[in-house]
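Appendix B. Chain record.
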Amino acid sequence: MKKLYTLLVFVLCMVATTANAQTKFVGGDISMLTKFMDEGAIYKDKDLNAIDPLTFFKEQGWNSMRVRLFVDPTKATTQERKEGAIQDLPYVIALGKQIKDAGYSFMLDFHYSDTWTDPGKHSTPSAWSSMSVDELKTEMYNYTKSCLQQLKAGGATPDLIQVGNEITTGMLWPTGRIYAGGGAPSGGSWDNFASYLANGIKACNEECPDAKIVIHTELHSVSDVPKFYNNLAAYTDVKYDIIGLSYYPDYHGTVATLNALLTTLENQHSDKKIMIVETGYGFQYPLNGAKEEYKNLYPLSDSGQKQFADALITTLSNHANVNGLYWWYPEYTLCNIVYKNGSEDWSKDFTAGFWNAALFHYKTGKAMSALYALKDFLGETSGIEQVPTVNKTTDDNWYTINGQLLNGKPTLKGVYINSGKKIVVK
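Structure tokens predicted for this chain:
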């Protein structure tokens, strides 16, 4: 009876602390992981030991992953596909199931296009291009509903859903094109845009009622972001839970700029959570097309990239409404694809667009220091702060300090929970 009571206390403690940990989300957009693994990429920890990425991320405290979805990426250009616009529904179902099976929460990023969408482009899918506004509203609902039904059937039910990607200037152009600060160019309107959103959200609520809805914008005009959400608030049928932001210092300014924006959004939309759903900073070169330069503040090095991550986490932690941080494209590496045994082999022309803000070195596959730092966003309150004082329980499983179940005894250094005790693995 005493053993049963001890086990019950331990389980209740684990459930409570794990639930607490899930109030914050940290992870990355790993949309290309399947492709890189298929190409033979090798990932390594900081000591150059080969690792399995999904297992490794979990051991580092990550608890959520994001994946993008295109309508028909076969219609994207060759260059766009080489840049990574390849995620069709079967691809996302398979990767989403791996994410869920590994114990992560899953954020689904609907692009509602055949290719990349951002504030400069939101092309309507080719199969939808001749539809009227009313037909597009219906298609938004039907397409979203069908995708979610198939994801659920495939074991990849999303926990968070982005209805559009970086929709600061609308979606489904030209009819859904808008100005973030108000109004719209000829052929577009806020009414159209809001109707498209509302129909997508309706399908999400019907198929995944427990999922949180994310409205995702980008900071190309920081002053317009609050205006966007204020304008959107006039459309009461657009119901969402989370303000999602893309923030890259190379394009969007200092962490202080972000801090001011977060304060404004919290003051104006106190009922919404806020997530950084995309971020990144280079460890050797500025990002392509960088508008700002911060190498004196955050050197373009492994330690400089970590300094940026630390500064970002410190800022986000000062905002009670901020509950998510996702690094974009952490999985990029050419280790064992191009760089093999000290030589270079560029015969595999499968990807274009060097991504210098990854969290693995492009040559060696070695994990960058910033990868290990991201778990700090969860904070002390999301870890297991109290462990039952008993020496033994019948639960011999291993858990991270954040309360996440591992597949067997960990091989990496760190503090873990086993048999009701904190154990340091050296």
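Further analysis of this model is presented in Appendix C.
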